[in-house]
Amino acid sequence: MISVLRRHLLSATFVSVGGAIAFFAFVMATVNMLRDLLAYFLDGRLPVLLFLKLSWLLFPYVVTYALPMGMLLGVLLVLGRMSADNEITAMRAAGLSVARICAPLYLLAILGAGFALFINFKVMPEARVAYHAQFDQTIRSTALDFIKPQTFVRNLLPNKVLYVGAKEGDTLKNFWLWESDPQGRVIRVWHADEAKPRFEAEEATVELELANARFENRDDKNPESTRQPPLTATFHDTKLKFSLEHALGKATVRRKLDWMTWDQLWAERRRLKAEGAPRTQILKVDLTLHQKITSAIAVFAFTVLAIPLGIRAQRKETSANLGIAVGLVLAYYILTVAVGWLDRVPKARPDLLLWAPIFLFIGLGVFLMRRVDRV
Length: 375
Fold this sequence. Notes:
Helix content: 55-70%
Largest sheet: 5 strands, antiparallel
């Protein structure tokens, strides 16, 4: 009989937790896609297959947040429903304690915490690096798509405006380039019959080969003066080279500490210690290690707290349980963010303080469980 009850509770919780994790992951992934990918997809700079691949690579990142939240909400929903339907009361009447009834949930929470550790230290870092590397490479390789025929392009180069009359393959026809001073006055003008751009993704630069070019240079101090004619020159062939970091940022994807695996974080820590780096730099690595571990243990901590809350709440309503879950999650992340502000104060040991919310939630869960078991 006990095994039947446990299978019933475990299967119901597994389905509920899976649905809650999928819900939170979908919402967070959608927000990230709308913010980072949608504009480039609608502009045609991200092919459909690449858009889908990048969207898929977002999920390991959002799962690190969705897993604790989903575990919390799933347990609240199942136990709230079972308590409201008096199923928990019937089990206790059969002589089972609350701790014994919920033993499968603790096992599920331990397995969830282990899975979260694997995600945080292996899957998420690799997916995050692959996501940014492919996104960065694609956006840079299509950077010249900013140049549209018969359109003034103002954001590609600082203090410069581009205009082309037509595009024939890689050749720009009737090419114009105006360079202005900080007051917006034109000080230099390039005009060419044809321009062939060559983009260097690694360096984030563009080189323009101009054919039949004409150059006009005006007085920097008074470019609008008509007393002194501008200096002009003509070129049969010439080249111009510009940096696109203003529009694209730096060309390389810098691996952040959050994007490092377990081995990479420890290697970085050993390197900093060997080089005699300041304690604040080493502390940032320690904070990342402890943050990844505590965010995984939060799956277990949330479950320990959700079990007595779900039994005491006795609610079937999804909205009520969702409100409780969101409130607890917000409290947890506010505490962890507040601890993160101490990253420049090594004496405060913020790496150890990250464990305070975990012990607080577990302690509160144990206290409430004892009260529930005595009722």
